[in-house]
Design goal:
eight-stranded mixed sheet, five-stranded mixed sheet, 18 helices, elongated, binds adenosine-5'-diphosphate, binds magnesium ion
Length: 608
């Protein structure tokens, strides 16, 4: 019997390889766009007909190719990007396997026109199913234009397998956006069936993101930055309120390449975990720069999956970078949409603004220095001589921004410094704490603020196992409903982390032998019932861990409620505590804690 092993002809080998590299029109788009980027183009145009089934064209003004290189570029393993195996570990270009063009040419009718800047004439090459049909000199602009016609014309099974135009077009857009998001310095345009879909000028990253995902993001991006010798993290995350119910805008890029990384995705989602309701996903555009030798991008042919050598370190750095970024955002000088809305609810347009008169309760005057406030607390309001009101103006004048002699200096700006807050706090509607800051007025929701403070404190204590318990002299018995009893049985261990000592006492009864040391005059039965209620509500809305959920429930129940009058000292210490929190601006249940009304806005409203 004769030998039976044969080497496959290149055209067949290429067609097989094509199955791996080019699964659908979008894969060809990705390869062509990346080649154009690697060619140093400043402008890249994508033209699509019938979702790429009829035509895909990419025109760039990059370095172009010589006639020989153009011919060579379609050979398998033909690349200008690596020369030897060692190059694999320092790759900075997007392509390097030299497979893309060979694969595309194996399954489509391809036409290339390309010219290098220094050449007078370019070259025009036609290839169909790996067979060169013609090549001749031509006059064309510097750069390269690839036309891919009738993709899979010779692989009917593949062609039939393609999805609807709308679905294939979505894939193409995805690839286009990913490439555009890593190359804001390159202008891109995209048209489909003669209609322009995107026209993206060269821009900075933030502008590029906004041009791609919509101007709604203008006010919603928080910069993330963290530099270390393991990884450089940069980019933007969307503010919690911009989270969506779909995993829409979630982008990771490693060394300028779009990647999928469920593990790192978890780091970001975890950083947002207590800020978003269940079913909501944060938006992010995160760029990781790592030493190419510490990343293996080659584990998957389409290269969106990567392995990092230091993935655990990167995980924790990413999580903390995002967390910090979220924590800082409310102090940026921009006024966000949420704040503007709230502003209107405090000062409704349809009601006349009443000028503050002498009936102001002086204790609530934000400008009064601490001793004065204390002094006045002892003097009933009616005893004030009405002519005294002038003194209020004197005090107020003392704290005019240009003269801060009578008061601690106020400098809240991009970075918050708790020292910088004025001592003057005013409670509004027994619900909000109002204070003057350098950039304008700051309004804090007292309940949400307290919830945040308690939450972070408790979480820290349970994490360090430092919660203390006060033994009950006369242990109380609580009787719960059957579902609550079932729930508490599951949570006994978590309750004990907070300092509760709860013992099952038959049926749905429990004996409470110890309670958290800082839980003061509470009806324990009500406290536990409320906490369980909050826990259940959270559970409906949030997919968080039991311990965290219980902490939130506990904090929510213990926080001061609207309607509680706060003394100036109480407001002061609440504000101080709040600003020592990691995430001072959003409550554990995702509510906005602080809004600022910029001086400019106030001036504008007065027409000044
Ligand atoms: P790879 O990108 O992995 O090197 P490709 O098959 O995508 O492999 O491309 C082969 C070669 O063709 C590239 O290495 C590059 O030299 C050249 N090439 C491809 N596209 C362009 C382009 N738009 N402009 C200039 N050269 C290109
Ligand atoms: Mg390539």
């Amino acid at each position: 019997m004769s030998d039976i092993i044969r080497l496959l002809p290149d055209s067949v080998a290429n067609q097989i390889a094509a199955g791996e590299v080019i699964q659908r029109p979008a894969s060809a788009v990705k390869e062509l766009l990346e080649n154009a980027v690697d060619a140093g183009a400043g402008h890249i145009e994508l033209i699509v007909k019938d979702a790429g089934k009829t035509l895909l064209q990419v025109i760039d003004n990059g370095c172009g190719m010589s006639a020989t290189d153009a011919r060579m570029s379609f050979e398998r393993h033909a690349t200008s990007k690596i020369k030897e195996a060692a190059d694999l570990f320092r790759i900075h270009t997007l392509g390097f396997r030299g497979e893309a063009l060979a694969s595309i040419a194996a399954i489509a009718q391809v036409e290339v026109k390309t010219r290098r800047m220094e050449d007078e004439l370019g070259t025009h090459l036609v290839i169909e199913g790996s067979v060169v049909k013609s090549q001749q000199p031509c006059a064309c602009t510097a750069g390269t234009s690839f036309q891919i016609k009738n993709l899979f014309f010779n692989v009917p099974a593949r062609r039939n397998f393609l999805k609807s135009d709308a679905a294939e077009m979505r894939h193409i857009m995805e690839e286009f956006q990913r490439v555009a998001l890593v190359n804001p310095q390159i202008a891109f345009s995209c048209q489909s069936n003669g209609k322009i879909l995107f026209q993206l000028p060269a821009a900075n990253l933030k502008q590029r993101i906004i041009n791609l995902v919509g101007s709604g993001f203008q006010e919603k991006l928080i910069p993330v930055n963290q530099d270390s010798n393991v990884v450089k993290i940069s980019g933007y995350v969307g503010k919690p309120e911009s989270a969506k119910k779909t995993k829409g805008e979630q982008y990771f890029f490693a060394n300028n390449r779009f990647i999928r990384h469920p593990y790192l995705n978890h780091a970001v989602e975890d950083a947002f975990s207590d800020l978003l309701p269940e079913g909501y996903f944060p938006s992010y555009f995160i760029y990781l720069d790592v030493d190419p030798s510490k990343i293996d991008i080659n584990i998957h042919p389409t290269k969106t999956e990567v392995n990092f050598l230091d993935h655990q370190v990167i995980y924790s750095m990413l999580r903390s970078a995002v967390r910090q970024a979220i924590g800082k955002f409310s102090f940026s000088s921009t006024l966000d949409f949420e704040a503007e809305k709230s502003f209107d609810t405090y000062f409704p347009k349809d009601r006349p603004v009443v000028a503050p008169g002498i009936h102001i309760n002086p204790e609530y005057n934000p400008f009064v220095k601490k001793q004065q406030a204390e002094l006045k607390l002892t003097a009933p309001l009616q005893q004030h001589d009405n002519t005294d009101w002038e003194k209020l103006y004197d005090v107020a004048r003392n704290v005019h921004p240009s003269d801060q002699s009578g008061i601690k200096s106020l400098t809240i700006d991009a970075d918050f410094d708790s020292e910088a807050i004025s001592r003057g706090f005013m409670q509004f509607q027994n619900k909000y704490i109002v204070s003057r800051v350098k950039s304008g007025l700051m309004i804090i929701d007292q309940q949400a603020a307290h919830e945040r403070v308690l939450y972070e404190r408790m979480l820290e204590k349970i994490e360090q196992q430092k919660s203390s318990s006060q033994q009950q002299l006369f242990p109380q018995t609580v009787n719960l409903s059957a579902p609550d009893a079932e729930l508490i049985n599951e949570l006994l261990e978590e309750f004990s982390l907070f300092g509760f000592q709860i013992e099952h006492f038959g049926q749905n009864s429990y004996i409470i032998r110890g309670i958290p040391a800082d839980l003061v005059d509470e009806n324990i039965q009500t406290h536990i019932e409320n906490v369980l209620e909050n826990f259940k509500n959270n559970q409906l809305g949030l997919k968080v861990d039991k311990k965290i959920n219980l902490t939130r429930a506990m904090a929510r129940n213990m926080a001061v409620k609207p309607g509680k009058v706060l003394m100036p000292e109480e407001m002061q210490s609440l504000v101080d505590d709040l600003f020592s929190c990691q995430v001072p601006n959003v409550s554990p249940s995702g509510k906005t804690i602080i809004i600022t009304i910029q001086s400019d806005e106030i001036e504008k409203r007065f027409g000044n």
